[in-house]
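Cross-check.
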Amino acid sequence: MRVFLDTNVIVAAVATRGLCADVFRETLARHDLVASEDLLSEIQMVLPDKLGVPAEIANEVVALLRESAHLSEPAWTIDLSIKDRADQGLISAAIEARVELFVTGDRELLDLKSLGKMEIVSPRAFWERIRGKARD
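Predicted model, tokenized:
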């Protein structure tokens, strides 16, 4: 499955142990992770600036994503009524890459539920879905 993890999911995965870390590991191990340059730039900025993560670790996370993810760029052909223009770019890049699931903790994006064939789900909903399939 093609999966795009929003910045907040990846940052939480790096900053804490728990659900987002599990989602990140599962996606890297068993799914096609999609990212964009905008996402990588946000991660590079947010980890040190907002969480105090050393720059070397932020660089390692970005390098891991560059190595592991399929990079997609936004087409900017969608116009969503959301506050954060950066989120619109991430959504557009995900749509361009024909992502099946966009995983985010952002309530405004979660309220969209889906765009075309792409579902927008929380980390918990993603985890429950893949764990349910693992049991089938």
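The longest helix spans residues 37-51. The chain has one domain: 2-135. Passed to J.P. for a second look.
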